[in-house]
Amino acid sequence: MKKLEEKIQTIGEVRDGNVLKVDSFLNHQVDPELMDDMAVAFMEYFKDKKVTKIVTIETSGIAPSLFLAKRLGVPMVFMKKGVSTTLCKDALCTEVFSFTKNRTYSLYADASFFNEDDHVLLIDDFLANGEACVGALRLLEKTKVTIEGIGIVIEKSFQPGRSRLEEMGHDICSLARIQAFEDGQVVFQKADQ
Ligand code: 5GP
User: Fold this and answer.
1) Residue 118 pLDDT more than 90?
2) Would you tell me how many other CB atoms lie within 10 Å of the CB of residue 143?
3) By the 8 A CB rule, do 64 and 35 touch?
4) Which end of the chain is more exposed for a tag (fewer CB within 10 A), N or C?
5) How many whole angstroms from 126 Cα to the centroid of ligand 1?
6) Cα separations (Å) of 117 from 20, 47, 145, 147?
7) In this predicted model, what pLDDT tens digit does every residue of 58-100 receive, in sequence order?
8) pTM summary value
9) Gap from CA of 100 to ligand 1 centroid (Å)
10) Ligand 1 mean position, distance from CA 131 (Å)
11) Is residue 178 in contact with ligand 1, taking CB distance under 6 Å?
12) Is the CB of 154 under 6 A from ligand 1?
């Protein structure tokens, strides 16, 4: 997605440890126009899929997911990274290791928001080693929904996340695919949409 690549190129910051900082439009401040354009791009890629629910992981998956859910006219469920007082006591739970934060966290979802007739698009902000997506899929497996595809805003294609998900048989749409970081600059490869 050209507009997203330009935004990454002009205001993204490459940090130590192959981390891309995009706090100014995705991870802290959010650009609603860009989120809506991304929703259109995801819709175009997944146009032949029957989707009844968008699922994401808090926090940074929520903004792009909500715009997509609104356009598709379906609910959006975000998996929670901690227990809250309102979360039901028999919520589904799985453990996920975060390489960027170097710690394990628990991912929760209320099973009552899913049923076996649901056709889900899983959306996340970044795909790196694939731990977050694989964890979310592990949790969704317990709900018997059908996974129609995975939508990623920024994929770091030099890390193994995409191949892990492809090996599991998933259809992946990444709007920006980063081939490498070279001298503090982002080198893109062809995106899926
Ligand atoms: P994975 O689980 O695929 O290794 O990493 C995905 C998660 O880690 C994303 O949901 C995102 O929160 C975070 N992440 C991974 N790489 C980056 C990065 O380069 N920049 C930012 N901002 N977050 C990242």
Assistant:
1) yes
2) 17
3) yes
4) C
5) 5
6) 37, 19, 6, 11
7) 999 999 999 999 999 999 999 999 877 888 778 999 999 998 8
8) 0.97
9) 6
10) 9
11) no
12) no
* pLDDT (0 to 100) of residue 90: 82
Q: Whose CA is nearest to atom 23 of ligand 1?
A: 126
Question: pLDDT value at position 82?
Answer: 84
The reply to whether ligand 1 has any atom less than 6 angstroms from the CB of 60 is yes
Report whether residue 134 contacts ligand 1, using a CB cutoff of 6 Å: no
- Tell me the pLDDT tens digit for each residue of 26-54: 999 999 999 999 999 999 999 999 999 99
132 lines ligand 1 (CB under 6 A): yes
List the one residue out of 59, 64, 96 whose CA is nearest residue 78: 59
pLDDT higher than threshold 90 for residue 3: yes
Residue 133 parent element (H or E): helix 131-141
Tokens of 93: 């739970």
Residues 35-65: b if buried by 16+ CB within 10 A, e if exposed: bebbbebbbebbeeeebbbbbbbeebbbbbb
- The letter for the amino acid at 152 is I
Residue 100 CB less than 6 A away from ligand 1: yes
Q: Give the CA diameter of the chain.
A: 49
